[in-house]
Amino acid sequence: MTNEKLLTAILMRKDGRHTIKGLYDENGNPVEIMLEKENELVMLNLICVADEENSDISEEEIQRVCETHENCDDCPLNEYCEKECEDYYGDYDN
């Protein structure tokens, strides 16, 4: 190990998900790191967190995140996509 200080460590023995919040990219945009383990597969996702001022996310970014999840319920963009569909198609409950 180098002289760098270890800020956090995660040991995942069972399947699950751990999210690290409160991080920012080089441009100052908020990001989250999501570590997921399922059987022998481990995924590390860096997610751009949309704020109210900059809530648009590109279709390419959405597609990349969607491809890493088997269903929408587990996707971190689930609420964003539901809102986009509601804005486009209207509220199905009414």
Key phrases:
2 helices; alpha+beta; three-stranded antiparallel sheet; about 90 residues; 3 strands; globular
Provide a descriptive summary of the structure in words.
The protein is an alpha+beta fold and 94 residues long. It has one domain. It is 22% helix and 28% strand. It has two helices and three strands; from the N terminus they run βββαα. Strands 1-2-3 form a three-stranded antiparallel β-sheet, with no helix packed on it. Strand 1 and strand 2 form a beta hairpin. It is globular, with a radius of gyration of 16 Å. The mean pLDDT is 77.
Task: Outline the fold blueprint.
Blueprint (H helix, E strand, L loop, with lengths): L15 E9 L5 E9 L2 E8 L10 H9 L10 H12 L5
Antiparallel strand pairs: 1-2, 2-3
Short description:
The chain is an alpha+beta fold. Helix content is 22%, strand content 28%.
Quickly give the structural class. Answer: alpha+beta
Classify the helix fraction into a percent range: 10-25%
* Total DSSP E strands: 3
Task: Tell me the strand order in the biggest sheet.
Answer: 1-2-3
Q: Which descriptor suits the 3D outline?
A: globular
Number of helices: 2
| Radius of gyration computed on alpha carbons | 16 Å
Query: Which ranges are low-confidence, i.e. pLDDT below 50, for 5 or more consecutive residues?
Result: none
Q: From N to C, what is the helix and strand string?
A: EEEHH
Largest sheet: 3 strands, antiparallel
Query: Roughly what is the average pLDDT, rounded to an integer?
Result: 77
In whole angstroms, the N-to-C terminal distance is 58 Å
| Count of spatially separate domains | 1
Beta strand %: 25-35%
